[in-house]
Specification:
Strand content: under 5%
Shape: elongated
Distance between the termini: 75 Å
Order of helices and strands: HHHHHHHHHHHHHHHHHHHHHHHHHH
Number of strands: 0
Largest sheet: none
């Protein structure tokens, strides 16, 4: 138990959001305190409930995106409170109205659970004639939360962008470290088969997984591009901004790292006789360290050092590869090995050059002007078309929405039929615990039951010892701070602190005791049973049925990438189109996500999961090799000297062109892949 508590505490470090928790708890506590001191405790409770519902949205990303998300939340809370007030006292009408709203929130991420929660919480209140007044009060609470969450906007406007850029640079640096560890490394498959319980020992004994680091870097670059796109000031400009240029520099470094990894793997079959591993390892590690310095400078807005432009480790690699090249010209080294070492040198040189470019961008400052607010871009496919396609294809998302709808209807119908007091707790537990897979749902249910039981018991004990509004406000502040600050760490923390928080907000005017806490625990268990039966008995998730489509799409986009690489080799394209590389990555990631979901099924198909893992890894390797081929195909051919033998076996006379002579520009040959410059002059043997 102590070990688990220590691990849970370790998760908090670096993942908690104390400012988010402080803003949410202040937004709830201040209306309660003002309402209590002025004699309007009920109105203060309604305002605090609106603040709670808007704070539940947990907006992320740039502050402009957060403002749009919070504005939508305030609108939904206001309308939902008014609609719920009209449904108050009409139990069966609420059963017909609330579940579709809950299902709509599951289908549309911009809505979420806000609309359903707002309608449900207002519908359980005693009937009132002024439903507009309740909606306005909750709107005030939502606006108060919005103002507190957006208060750091002027001073921290670029912080989300800097964090995304810094994380992308760190991820690319880790990918370079994985390449460095592969240089001259022995086969690690023997150690990979050994099961280790200590994660620290595993990090020391096993080298980094290139596929994992490469995938993490790709996702980090995608997140950085997405974050940058949310800053509306960057749109409509012909010249790229500094953050955009920095992202593209990181992408080019990542592509060179992919090329470097492929060439390093090829050197295992044709290594040179001379020592080269140590210098190459040090040079790549030094480049990764320089990139981490840039990451720190981006995250701290220039307060961290940038590092120098020159690298002694890179210069040493240049001298070492030059010695190997000369040995190849003298016939003391295999030409294939010399070509591979030359490609490693060129990749290291280009990575160093891109880092110098990124360094100058960071030194100049990654700033963006404040632009006029714009509406989000419309989706290329209309909402009705997307819904129709989901219904026709019975996608996993459609099945999940239908499952949530049935669960909400059953739980609310049971509460209405048996007139269960506080029956909304059963509905909330049932509808918010369902997830896409069996394993995720079971984990969420266990965490919710345990956290709710412990949190409700603690809240009831505190209220029983010192009842009173001021005590309740203090408890709400403390629990709100813990719930919202630790919400992103683990759902158990949210259930532990959030359950009693919601309980006290709903019954602020009439403090609850042990009986109410017991009802809450019992209804939570009942909602858990309903959710478990729904995920166990209702239709399957449908991920297996989608596999043929996803596999076909993955093969199709990789086939297009192969054609594009062939066009690059033939000189028809200057480089691989970025959209084709991204499409190949997304196709493989879609299959990988389906594989992860299949692992969480009640009875996972291990053979299918292993086959999908093999297919995804093969797709990643194909994409990486195509990137490497395309990068090397458009390089300038390097002069390697004469071929040692002619087609007849006699020495070949080789002369340099006269000094000052030039090949006419129109007659110059196109750039050739480096392996063609090492091709012997003997004709290919024709099979008989």
């Amino acid at each position: 138990m102590l070990q688990r508590a220590r691990e849970a505490y370790a998760q908090i470090n670096g993942r908690a959001a104390p400012l988010y928790g402080l803003a949410a708890s202040v937004a709830m506590a201040v209306p309660l305190l003002v309402g209590t001191l002025t004699g309007y405790a009920a109105a203060g409770s309604t305002i605090a409930l609106g603040a709670y519902l808007v704070a539940l949205r947990a907006p992320e990303g740039p502050y402009g995106s957060q403002a749009r998300d919070l504005a939508g939340g305030v609108l939904m809370v206001t309308v939902g409170a008014a609609v719920g007030g009209l449904l108050s006292g009409h139990t069966w009408l609420a059963v017909a109205v609330v579940p579709p709203l809950v299902a709509l929130g599951t289908a549309v991420s911009q809505i979420g659970s806000t609309a359903g929660m707002a309608v449900l919480n207002s519908a359980i209140r005693p009937p009132t004639s002024d439903v507009v007044h309740s909606g306005l009060l909750e709107m005030i609470g939502g606006l108060f939360t919005t103002a507190l969450l957006l208060a750091p906007w002027p001073a921290r406007r670029l912080k989300p962008l800097r964090a995304a850029l810094s994380e992308a640079a760190d991820a690319v640096a880790e990918a370079l470290d994985a390449v460095a560890q592969d240089v001259g490394a022995p086969d690690g498959s023997v150690l990979d088969k050994v099961e280790l319980d200590d994660p620290e020992l595993e990090e020391v004994t096993r080298k980094p997984d290139w596929e994992q680091r490469r995938r993490a870097a790709s996702e980090a670059l995608t997140d950085a591009r997405t974050t940058y796109s949310l800053y509306r000031s960057g749109r409509g400009r012909e010249d790229p901004t500094r953050p955009e240029r920095f992202i593209e520099a990181l992408a080019r470094i990542m592509h060179e790292a992919v090329t470097l990894e492929a060439v390093v793997e090829a050197t295992r079959n044709s290594p040179p006789d001379r020592e080269w591993e140590l210098d190459t390892h040090i040079a790549i590690s030094a480049l990764a360290a320089r990139l981490r310095l840039l990451s720190g400078a981006v995250a701290t807005a220039g307060d961290a050092p940038l590092g120098g432009e020159e690298s002694a480790a890179v210069r040493r690699v240049v001298r070492q590869t030059e010695a190997i090249r000369r040995a190849g010209l003298a016939g003391d080294e295999d030409l294939v090995a010399v070509a591979l070492i030359g490609q490693i040198r060129r990749s290291i040189d280009r990575i160093s050059g891109e880092m110098n470019t990124a360094r100058r961008l960071v030194a100049g400052g990654l700033r963006l002007k404040v632009g006029a607010p714009r509406l989000p871009d419309p989706h290329p496919m209309s909402a009705s078309a997307r819904i129709g396609r989901a219904v026709r294809n019975r996608t996993p998302k459609f099945r999940q929405v239908a499952r949530v709808l049935v669960t909400a209807v059953v739980s609310m119908a049971l509460a209405a039929a048996f007139a269960i007091p506080h029956g909304q707790w059963m509905t909330i537990t049932a509808m918010l615990s369902l997830r896409d897979t069996y394993g995720e749902t079971v984990d969420r249910l266990v965490q919710r039951v345990g956290g709710t039981a412990a949190g409700s018991a603690v809240a009831a004990l505190l209220l029983a010892l010192a009842p009173g509004h001021l005590t309740i406000i203090l408890v709400i502040f403390v629990f709100g701070l813990g719930a919202f600050a630790l919400r992103s760490v683990n759902f158990t923390y949210w259930a532990l602190f959030g359950s009693p928080l919601f309980l006290m907000l709903l019954s602020f005017s009439t403090p609850s005791g042990w009986a109410t806490a017991g009802e809450r625990i019992g209804l939570t268990v009942a909602g858990t049973v309903i959710a478990f039966l729904a995920v166990r008995l209702l239709w399957p998730t449908g991920h297996v049925e989608r596999l043929p489509v996803q596999l076909g799409r993955m093969l199709g986009v990789h086939a297009e990438l192969v054609r594009a690489a062939a066009a690059v080799v033939d000189g028809e394209l200057p480089s691989l189109p970025h959209e084709k590389v991204v499409a190949a990555e997304e196709g493989a990631l879609a299959v990988a996500r389906t594989r992860d979901r299949l692992e969480l099924e009640r009875v996972p198909d291990t053979e299918l999961i292993d086959a999908l893992l093999t297919a995804v890894r093969a797709a990643h390797r194909v994409r990486d090799r195509l990137i490497a081929v395309a990068r090397m195909a458009r390089e300038e051919a390097v002069d390697t000297g004469p071929s040692p033998r002619s087609s007849t076996g006699s020495p070949t006379s080789w002369r340099r062109p006269p000094k000052g002579s030039r090949t006419p520009r129109r007659s110059r040959p196109a750039a050739r892949p480096p392996w063609r410059s090492w091709r012997r002059s003997s004709p290919r043997s024709t099979p008989t």
